[in-house]
Amino acid sequence: SDHMENICGYLMKYTNLVTGWQYRFFVLNNDAGLLEYFVNEQSRHLKPRGTLQLAGAVISPSDEDSHTFTVNAASGEQYKLRATDAKERQHWVSRLQICTQHHTEAIGKNNPPLKSRSFSLASQGSASSPGVQRRPSQNAVSFFNVGHHRLSTGKRVPIMQPDHLVDVREMMSQAEGQQRDLIRSIECLPVSGHLTSLDQDLLMLKATSMATMNCLNDCFHILQLQHASQQKGSLPAGTTINWLEPKVSLANHFKNGAAQNFPAEINKPASVREEQSVVEPCQLTREPEEINPDEELEDICDDKEDDLGAVEEQRSVILHLLSQLKLGMDLTRVVLPTFILEKRSLLEMYADFMSHPDLFIAITNGTTPEERMIRFVEYYLTSFHEGRKGAIAKKPYNPIIGETFHCSWRMPKSDVGTDAGSNSSAHSVSEPVTLPKDPEGQKELDYYTVKFVAEQVSHHPPVSGFYAECVERKMCVNAHVWTKSKFLGMSIGVTMVGEGLLSLLEHGEEYTFSLPCAYARSILTVPWVELGGKVSINCAKTGYSASINFHTKPFYGGKLHRVTGEVKQNVTNTVVCRVQGEWNSVLEFTCSNGETKYVDLTKLSVTRKRVRPLEKQGPFESRRLWQHVTESLRDGDIDKATEHKRALEERQRNEERLRAETETPWCTKYFLKEGDGWVYHKPLWKTVSAVQTQQTDTN
Fold it and tell me: Domains in the chain and their CATH numbers?
């Protein structure tokens, strides 16, 4: 290729937390498929300080800024590099990607299929046996006899046959099973004595065995790409390419498409077969579905996350995971252990922020712009308490791209506009609002309905969109959130990047708002959740704004979950209300007219959401999609939950690869990209505007 040129130049390379960034001279050797670096250009004739094989590597521009990018080698080694500007970064990234693709394809074309590889874990006797007593010169690897058979050199074929990939997949499944047995054997060792489960060498053996399996998966992906490219070149246009699957049941690899029908094994769980049978997104309708609220039933699920048993039992797993992380590391692509998961998807967690629909609907009942802003602040601050399930910091499921969640709430009209659940020294009752009649002339209902829909619109970066509306009160909220998580040492920080928009159409007002950061503290003992950071709420039309500060607990003293804020009239720079308290306990609102209101969140009534039964949900709706993971977690079967979770994640990765190979863009179902944000495809403000225009034309 004309673009296969050797380039060289200075780049900044991130070394470690202490040393930081350092200038190094880099050389791209296209012929050898190597990226090498030297201390400076003058030392280029010496041995390079570092070398990366580019075959099978992944070159990724960073989300941090326009200058940084990473080179992730198939060996697991990573270079984090920074160019002088965006143009230079693009130059390096494009050349590295061309070289990587060339050498990756060459490996697939020039190497024969794998024939056999087996692992054996030999017992070395009981712990009391003298043969197991460890000598100072004996390393941990010698405790386990891991044997390798030489790979036989089979006949090279120009096009890899389907059965070859099936055989490779089956061998990898066996190897993964042996690797899990190795891990279990290490973890079953005592925590004290000559050889313990926390031995440094054994922890290293666990890490390297896992890295080896990851490399094998990457190599298998190379073979899949080679096969797909060959198929793509020989099949007629429009043909759907299905990923090859094994003929027998596998522990960790499940079917991605529905075109191939392999015989079901007797010992294969029905739930796994169901996960395997979910069709490709390109075969599913992406047309928005109108959910009938009458089909939804009041939710009876009550999964409180108050069990510490799993966390205590998996302490060694947490220690091992922490040993692999670095300060500031982005955890977006890190697969966390299953036992720390909540029994719900992140999309459903966003829905639980709406568990006080009476306070949400009451916002538009405010008689003045000032009162409406204060009511919105009250609703905003009371939403986070129910969004958390219990005091233990657990993580909701990462939604897969295309996943959706639907629900609704019914709120009796008599309960809206009152201060039920709060203790205030002054109450203000809003004027009743005349509701529009049903367009079909049906009898007016005695309750309001709030509808909610959420969708995972992007995988990298992980972005969720959610929308809620109350048609009767002509109000709706639209938001998009990009979750960015980082490792902070003894805690994990999650930044909620994005923006929300509340529209009160009766008043022609729009309120923009942001979300606080979340922290999982004390991850080695009893993890707990803390919110932190400053958020703002603004209404451009009325000139009112609110500034809210979620305070993190200082190292010494201080209160937990403290929040303070103030509502201000921007034109006069006058503070009209001050807020203080705890976002999960009692909040105090003090207005400039002397009125004081207390809201006790522990006594605030929670309205249960209404959800369709599983049998009426689509295959990509959250509860049906994750049902087997949730059931396994309820039963306390972590291994089974991990298998189901891995099946969904593997399917998502395969689908993403297939879309990349066929150059098929992902199509969202309910949300449309507008600028940097995502907007619901049929928001209430468009519907109401269209109806008003139609009425004007009729008159």
Answer: 7-109 (2.30.29.30), 297-415+446-529+616-680 (no CATH)
